[in-house]
Amino acid sequence: MTDLFRKIAPVADELGRLFVAQGHELALVGGPVRDILLGRVGNDLDLTTDARPERVLEIVRDWADSVWTIGIDFGTVGVRKGNWLIEVTTYRSESYDPKSRKPEVLYGETLEADLERRDFAVNAMAVRLPGHEFVDPYGGMSDLKAGRLRTPGTPERSFDDDPLRMLRAARFASQLGFTVDEKALAAMTAMADRIEIVSAERIRDELDKLVCGAGPREGLRILVETGLAEHVLPELPKLRLEIDEHHRHKDVYEHSLTVLDQAIAQEEDGKPDRILRWAALMHDVGKPKTRRHEPGGRVSFHHHEVVGAQMTKKRLSELRFPKDVVADVSRLVELHLRFHGYGTGEWTDSAVRRYVRDAGHLLDRLHKLTRADCTTRNKRKAQTLSRTYDQLEERIAKLADEEELAKIRPELDGNEIQRVLGIGPGPVVGRAYKFLLDIRLDKGMIGKEAATEALLEWARSNDLGG
């Protein structure tokens, strides 16, 4: 054990000596201890102390390169020393009022009491500094070896103190590949509606970490089976459409999780692609609303991509995702079926250009999402779809050699349109620009002279003079 803790950054021991010299305790706690035991070391350190926040500021002020106090109301002081980011939090106990979104912070007196209020036993281990005494009063080490998530005290009390811990259980299952203790799962199921007192931003952060974890399928399954998803991502459980013997179709819920798995398999450099993952998860959320039973036992989902894009935009906006993330994910959901109009290669070059232009900066992700969306067990059908998409990508590459598809512009810009038509800025310029862009997409480069003639003819046919 001592050998393991030699990986603790010297900067932590240095700070530990500083606190001890001032008559206070300091310990490395939570995630960093867990990660050291798992053989992982990062540049973020979580420390805990008996010193109150104002005293912490006094101790670190001359030692730190910089200090920030954004979390001081919750007992946390942030410190940067070299490349290390350190958070020092006063021993505490926090709980939620049943009608409040914000925790009430109560300071504690001992390390052991502080550890009891941690979310899971694997995060309730500490190492006193600078002596490296290992403190594990709740069996975190045995849980770590078993790959198990269990609360230090009763799960009911833990989740009542901070309902977000229920989402954290699913998130850690995704990130660490751990299983959740049966008692904790039962409490999560019974207390699922308690999550509604937590702010959208905190829920978003946990869901995002879950989706971007190593194995999001398991974490999402936990959310659905405990009923938590009904409160934080209700579109997901609604994908579990009933399947009867007369109207057979794929299990959309399982299909969506498989598409997510297959999208992840296409990521590059092992880095999670947030936009691609969320698009894969949400791509079919429009199906429940658009499902229709057709003659012969068929089931249709006409325009589910359009409805799904609207639903995705609404959900991600309510979760307070950045506007660019909302726009990109919902756009991919809207475009995910476009390829299926390609058939066996019937698209004209102009249709291929439109596909590229509509995808814009999302083209590479759209390629991956489209390929991930093939979950058929029919190997011949899967191979045919794959070959057809290979051909489409080859055509895109060929056209890209001839012109920069993603940057296609009309051959006349706004100023030239105004000069040709003898008009000033206004909506007519925008309409003319779109007309010329359509020509550009349909016919490629025709030259400025031909573009000018086409513009004048368009103006005459629309009674715009020229």
UniProtKB/TrEMBL annotation:
InterPro entries tied to this protein: Bact_CCA-adding_enz_type3_sf, HD/PDEase_dom, HD_domain, HDIG_dom, NT_sf, PolA_pol_head_dom, PolyA_RNA-bd, tRNA_adenylyltransferase
Ranges in coiled-coil conformation: 382-409
Keyword presence, Lipid metabolism: no
Top-rank lineage group of the source organism: Bacteria
Keywords, ordered alphabetically: Coiled coil, Magnesium, Metal-binding, Nucleotide-binding, Nucleotidyltransferase, Transferase, tRNA processing
GO MF term set: CCA tRNA nucleotidyltransferase activity
Enzyme class: transferase
Keyword Plastid: no
Database matches in SMART domains: HDc
UniProt EC number: 2.7.7.72
Residues covered by the HD domain: 252-369
Cofactor(s) the protein requires to work: Mg(2+)
A Pfam entry, by short name: HD
PANTHER family xrefs: CCA TRNA NUCLEOTIDYLTRANSFERASE 1, MITOCHONDRIAL
UniProt protein name: CCA tRNA nucleotidyltransferase
The species this protein was found in: Nonomuraea purpurea
